[in-house]
Amino acid sequence: MFEQIKINNKSYDITKTRKLDLFLESEYIPDDIQILQNLTYLKIRSRNKVSYLPDFIYDFKELIFLDLSHNQIPGKIDEKIINLKKLRTLNLSNNNLKGTIPVNIGYLINLKNLDLSNNNISGEIPDTLGKLSKIWHINLSKNDLNGEIPLSLYNLLFKKNLPLNTIFHENNFSYILE
Fold first, then answer.
1. Given CB 3.0 to 4.6 Å as the disulfide criterion, which of 15, 17, 41, 137 pairs with 113?
2. 3-state SS, one letter per residue, for 64-85
3. Which tens digit of pLDDT belongs to each residue from 107-124?
4. Among 110, 143, 112, which residue's Cα sits nearest to residue 125?
């Protein structure tokens, strides 16, 4: 017999569920999700503002795709993001995130898609983002980023032929760090 949980009136097998795509009616991410430790894909949208990002999100060791965009999530991006070592896609765009970009995002060596656009993230871009050698899409636009763009990131964007406007657009950079 399979152990199952119910989320939004739908049953999920605890050991076999790999993909979870939810639309929430409430402002809370259900705690029951944390039981699904074999998730590789997690996408959550909400009709309302999500009141906070629960810590258990950082416990999904098999996660390769995390999309929590368009949820008006407040707060900072937690340093625990480094726990998601297999992550290839991280989309936290269109929320109310603030604070700085954690340095350790640059150590998510499998990351191919990073979207932190349309938030209130401030400060300088950590030079560790230049270590994302597998990246093929990066969007940091429409934040309050400032200071200098690290040369390592600029070189990576140039090497991969990635558009610079996804970094520069509606931010407050002074110049590229040499």
1. 137
2. CEEECCCCCCEECCCHHHHHCC
3. 999 999 999 999 999 999
4. 143
- The average confidence (pLDDT) of the chain is 93
Taking the domains of the chain in order of start, what are their residue ranges?
Answer: 14-176
The number of beta carbons lying within 10 Å of the beta carbon of residue 68 is 22
The three-point CA angle 81-167-73 to 5° equals: 45
How much is the pLDDT for 77?
Answer: 96
Dist. CA 152–CA 86, nearest whole Å? 23
Measured CA to CA, the distance from residue 97 to residue 108 in angstroms comes to 20
Instruction: Give the C-alpha separation, 120 to 124, whole Å.
Output: 13
Mean pLDDT over 127-136 rounds to 97
For the segment 18-39, the average pLDDT, to the nearest whole number, is 93
CB 58 within 8 A of CB 42: no
- Specify whether domain 14-176 bears CATH 3.80.10.10: yes
What is the distance of C-alpha 67 from the center of its chain? 7
| Strand ranges (E), 25-143 | 41-46, 65-67, 74-75, 89-91, 96-99, 113-115, 120-123, 137-139
